[in-house]
Amino acid sequence: MIKSLFKKKKAYPLHSLDLHSHLIPGIDDGVSTIDETIAILREFESWGMKKVITTPHIFSEVYPNKESNILARHKKVVEQLNANGVGVELEVAAEYYVDEELLTKLNNNHPLLTFGEKYLLFETPFLLEPKILTECIFMLITKGYVPVMAHPERYIYLQEDNKRMGELRERGVLFQVNLGSLVGYYSENAKNVVKILLKKSWIDFIGSDCHNQKHQHVLSKVWGDKLYKKIIESGIRNDELI
Ligand SMILES: [Fe+2]
């Protein structure tokens, strides 16, 4: 009785839309079976999340996914979610690796997978900034996309370079922070960078980057976290996309 009085209240997310995950089975390093997709989305549903935008990797050397294939696979997954009574809406976009293939697609006006108002999620190598990053950002903006950099806090080349982060923002890049970074899942450095980004009001979106049930377990520790609450209060844009 006394024990239950002091039991910590279960915390829930304060936002309703997630926009970075790998939940289409078997096409990248995310979930491998539809059962995993269903289990993860049921958990999101139990947390009160309304919509999940899943973002398979498009990375020519490692995950050479085609937009058309991602759309076809997403359609099949949605059918299975409906058949199993999963109540979270699953949309699809992609996480583009900054490489020559992306530049070629932009030059050829190849339609890219986006969410909301032509937001395009992109990632880069972790150690070094790609030489074509500035050109890619310029091309994306010229073609009417809004570039959203996935997890800027995780890139070693940016972690101690606030000036470069500021330049990227001046060029029109938005930032999406990973929720796991808030509780130190990736590294203490990444967590510290999130604090700097928050201070500078440079966090536009938060995302789970959920690849599997282990990641999901990490997320359950985020909802009661003080840094998470502060980021929500800072006015992120996730729920504008519902
Ligand atoms: Fe990702």
Write down the oligomeric state.
single chain
Q: What's the architecture, going by CATH?
A: Alpha-Beta Barrel
Counting DSSP H or I runs of 4 or more residues, the number of helices is: 11
CATH topology: TIM Barrel
Largest sheet: 6 strands, parallel
Widest β-sheet, arrangement of strands: 3-5-6-7-8-9
Tell me the domain tally: 1
How would you spell out the order of helices and strands? HEHEEHEEHEHEHHEHHEHH
CATH class division: Alpha Beta
**Low-confidence blocks of residues:** none
Q: Please report the total strand number as a whole number.
A: 9
Q: How much helix, percentage-wise, in residues?
A: 40-55%
Structural class from helices and strands?
alpha/beta
Per CATH, the superfamily is Metal-dependent hydrolases
Structure description:
This protein has 242 residues and is an alpha/beta fold. It has one domain (14-235): TIM Barrel. The chain has helices at residues 2-5, 34-46, 67-83, 100-107, 133-142, 156-159, 162-170, 179-182, 188-199, 213-220, 226-233; strands spanning 17-18, 51-54, 57-58, 89-92, 95-97, 119-123, 146-150, 174-178, 205-207. It has a 6-stranded parallel sheet with strand order 3-5-6-7-8-9. A 3-stranded parallel sheet has the order 1-2-4. Strand 6 (119-123), helix 5 (133-142) and strand 7 form a beta-alpha-beta unit. Helix 4 (100-107) packs parallel to helix 5. The longest helix is centred in the N-terminal third of the chain and has 17 residues, at 67-83. It is globular, with a radius of gyration of 18 Å. The protein starts with a helix and ends in a 9-residue tail after the last helix. The protein binds fe (ii) ion. Fe (ii) ion binds at residues 20, 22, 95, 150, 209. The site of fe (ii) ion (FE2) has 5 residues, from loops.
